[in-house]
Amino acid sequence: MNNLSITGKTQLLGVIGHPVEHSLSPVMHNAAMAALGLDYVYLPFPIKPENLEVAMAGLAAINVVGFNVTIPHKQAIMPFLSEITPIAQAIGAVNTVSYQHEQWVGTNTDIEGFIAPLQTTYRQDWNQKMAVILGNGGAARAVVAGCQQLGVAQIHVVGRSWQKLQEFRNSWANLPEWEKLQINIWDDLGELIPQANLLVNTTPVGMYPLMNESPVSMGDMQKLSPGAIAYDLIYIPHTSQFLQQAKKQGAIAINGLEMLLQQGVAALKIWLQRETLPVDVMRQALRNHLKADCKAV
């Protein structure tokens, strides 16, 4: 952990959630502040759901520059914001808030986090590709929006409840090109996987401590094309069963650490109003922290 020098002029950033003590955001953000030599500190703020409104007033009163939002506040916070960006409205969730002109402004940087490696390291002509997204919860919404932004030709969301899947699809109905979005029940997975260029796990299946589980059966995963991209939003463990299975088929594996990093980078750019950040320092701080945490082994 970098040594931080707190002064009377230190600016405050943070993350709100309940619980929030396991958040890795302070690790990467405080590493960035130290590298930049900025008089900022990033703190975790544990806020119970019933205290959210009064907490917002308190954060404004102590001049917090901005903060991230995690479970369970990503949707609940929206009525307390003066402005919400169109992308956050489309997703129906806010993960980044900044204080601008004495008002709270909410946005969502999860999309930028998700698509970052797909725009750089694994760049492709996405308008010829098909994405299969496992799960239809809040994380899947950011992934769908990210796929739309990339220009993916076909987006298939797979879930277990047909009613919830229909509600999910209908919630996108007033967005352009929403006809690209298709819904499928889990039993369809065996037919979808052979066509998938991008297979994304947005479910918690396979996350610590249930690390021996995968959302996809071995039989279905064997249908994945070599060269396809398997993307797991999980980052503990570093290589989930889902990614291990995919790599055996010759797929490219991406875990959730880069999404965590890049959504944080996007948020920090908003708060600091600067485009150049020590991304490598932030990435290494996360890796070092996870290596040091016996639970990540």
Automatic annotation (TrEMBL):
Matching InterPro entries: Aminoacid_DH-like_N_sf (IPR046346), NAD(P)-bd_dom_sf (IPR036291), SDH_C (IPR041121), Shikimate_DH (IPR011342), Shikimate_DH-bd_N (IPR013708), Shikimate_DH_fam (IPR022893)
Annotated active site: K74
Catalytic activities: shikimate + NADP(+) = 3-dehydroshikimate + NADPH + H(+)
Major enzyme class: oxidoreductase
Pathway(s) this gene product operates in, as recorded in its UniProt entry: Metabolic intermediate biosynthesis; chorismate biosynthesis; chorismate from D-erythrose 4-phosphate and phosphoenolpyruvate: step 4/7
One Pfam family hit: Shikimate_dh_N
EC numbers, comma separated: 1.1.1.25
Domain spans labelled Shikimate dehydrogenase substrate binding N-terminal: 15-97
GO cellular component, one term: cytosol
Keywords: Amino-acid biosynthesis, Aromatic amino acid biosynthesis, NADP, Oxidoreductase
Binding site for NADP(+): G135, N136, G137, G138, A139, L233, G256
Positions annotated to bind shikimate: S23, L24, S25, T70, N95, D110, Y235, Q263
CDD domains: NAD_bind_Shikimate_DH
GO BP field: amino acid biosynthetic process; aromatic amino acid family biosynthetic process; chorismate biosynthetic process; shikimate metabolic process
Record's function text: Involved in the biosynthesis of the chorismate, which leads to the biosynthesis of aromatic amino acids. Catalyzes the reversible NADPH linked reduction of 3-dehydroshikimate (DHSA) to yield shikimate (SA).
Subunit details: Homodimer.
Family per similarity comment: Belongs to the shikimate dehydrogenase family.
Entry-linked PANTHER family: BIFUNCTIONAL 3-DEHYDROQUINATE DEHYDRATASE_SHIKIMATE DEHYDROGENASE, CHLOROPLASTIC, SHIKIMATE DEHYDROGENASE
Name under which the protein is recorded: Shikimate dehydrogenase (NADP(+))
Organism: Chrysosporum bergii ANA360D
Originating gene: aroE
